[in-house]
Design brief:
Elements lengths: L3 H15 L7 H43 L6 H15 L11 E7 L6 E9 L18 E9 L5
Antiparallel strand pairs: 1-2, 2-3
Helix pairs in contact: 2-3
Amino acid sequence: MSTPAKRFSSAWTACTRARKFDDSGASAVEFAVVFPLFLVITLAILAYGIYFGAAHSVQQLAANAARSSIPGLNEAERTQLTKNFVSANAGSYPLLIASKVSVTTAPGNATPDDMVVTVKYDSSSLPIWGFKNFFPLPSPIIERVAVIRRGGPQ
């Protein structure tokens, strides 16, 4: 007479003997399943890194352009100093093309002593826009604002 434990043991042994599969291609199948997802995630990280780098350059350009307006004696001179700074230095910022940068100035909303400098950049020439069909990307127009207290006599 066989005990239930012996019957289970012999059944288990029979199952394991029958389950001799060839798993030599399993890693290739796993790679084929995982690699496209890995590639999309890696490209998304790269694309957003480039976009954030360009956005940071636009913000720095706006801040430096606002600072350049401080020595101006009146509104027209401050605006001209800001535009001159942007046209002279926009090409030196990483990921920016000077011809695609525009700048506007205006008085501040909170106080009239503030000067608002707005820099817009059309980033459609960056290489990341080829990936727009694979994952969502932000707007190609990057707009950053810097506010600074006006200098000179008021």
